Amino acid sequence: MAGLRRMYARLLFVVVGILGPVSAYFGTSWPCHCRNCAWLPPSLWLYAGGMNEAIRPGAESPPQAGTTPQLSVVVPTFNERDNVTTLFRRLETALAGCDWEVIFVDDNSPDGTWDVVRGLARQDGRIRCIRRIGRRGLSGACIEGILASSAPCAAVIDADLQHDETQLPKMLALLQSGEAELVVGSRYIEGGSADSFNRQRAGASQFATEVAKRVLGVKIADPMSGFFMIRRDRFEQLAPQLSTQGFKILLDIVATARGDLKVKEIPFTFGSRLHGESKLDSMVALDFLGLVLAKLTHDVVSLRFLMFAMVGSIGVFVHFAVLYAALRVFAVPFPEAQGAAAFCAMTGNFILNNFLTYRDQRLKGFAILRGLLLFYLVCSVGLFANVGVAFSVYAQQPIWWLAGAAGALMGVVWNYAMSGLFVWRKR
Ligand code: GDD
Ligand code: MN
């Protein structure tokens, strides 16, 4: 029954997706009354409202009840139920006199943070909550939160009160006066500090900052900060190139803008977390590395692809280790040994990809088994593609390493593309 309903929904989606462009082509105004967004797929209609407003400022529509606030404060949350109410009260005090709203972006926190936010929102219309299901990631949450706003300015602030919300009016004034397009709450300029960090965390943060400055040529003192405010129109220009993975959204924004963004830093003291614990784990180093590489290659290679390829290289290693052990230690005949090696490599790759490459869309429970079987299928076809390309290159130019590399590249691109489509599908 549910399957049938889903099928109908998909059918409707396809029909609407086709009718949209067709109606745009013939100049009709269905399904939306503005032609600007008729060609957009339904999933983008949400954003189209904001785009039309930007295209046609002050359109002749009749006056609406309530106006767009000047500032949207975006708060990414994951297991912060004990902090959100205090944060909201503090925002209320700090922003008294401003026209503002707050958008919580919660990744379906097991502690029910979204439920607490909904409760608050029922009492105060300035609060909104985006509950994301099947997705994880601080950067992606911030991007979605800012894109859901129609205010001219958007701020990002942590929910745990480690950032100083009393700086928000000053940051807003800098954007409104045109002195800056991006204002960064900085721990590493005079007047700022991060004393609450332990030595290990302080060292890692400073090392990453140095790498960002030297390798990516980022000019600001604290590109790792998670506290900033930006003009929404500037953000929307950069948004399509930003990575939704990882923690380093500010670094991504600054590196993507490549100097074409008026930035100002103001000092603040990074405090201690009120309740709960940090979600930053050792994987964040890997994310950082991926982001640096992606920006260095002008986004030709994505962080996810790099990670997928890296896992693939580990798979090659696993394959040879198992093959060697099966042949030499267990004296298994070659075809069986090769089969076992491929099986182990594919299984290992699936597990690693589920934990690293796609950890924001990690498969859980029964979906793991389904995903694993699909992954075997995808990789088996990828192997044919690999061998086929290698053969044809070798037939043209009998250089073994060139043919091998061409085959491997074909295999990894195929596996990556198909895994994204079938195994770790975006919801
Ligand atoms: N929606 C969502 N999804 N929110 C998340 C996720 C996620 O996967 N992971 C973390 N958050 C939220 C937290 O609930 C919190 O409100 C905020 O993002 C920051 O997360 P913390 O876990 O408190 O990070 P931190 O304090 O260790 O790190 C902070 O400081 C770093 C500077 O050293 C963050 O602001 C980092 O962005 C910043 O780089
Ligand atoms: Mn924190």
Helix count equals 14
Beta-strand content bin: 5-15%
Apparent shape: elongated
Q: Strand tally, please?
A: 7
Q: What is the typical, i.e. mean, pLDDT?
A: 84
Strand order in the largest sheet? 3-2-1-4-6-5-7
Ranges with pLDDT <50 over ≥5 residues? 1-60
Bound molecules: guanosine-5'-diphosphate-alpha-D-mannose, manganese (II) ion
> Any idea what the radius of gyration is?
25 Å
What is the H/E order? Answer: HHEHEHEHEHEHEHHEHHHHH
Helix content: 40-55%
Summarize the helices and strands and which ones pair or pack:
Blueprint: H1 2-25, H2 45-55, E1 71-77, H3 84-94, E2 100-106, H4 113-123, E3 127-131, H5 138-147, E4 153-156, H6 168-176, E5 182-186, H7 199-216, E6 228-231, H8 232-238, H9 249-257, E7 263-267, H10 283-296, H11 303-329, H12 334-357, H13 366-396, H14 400-423
Parallel strand pairs: 1-2, 1-4, 2-3, 5-7
Antiparallel strand pairs: 4-6, 5-6
The chain binds guanosine-5'-diphosphate-alpha-D-mannose (GDD) and manganese (II) ion.
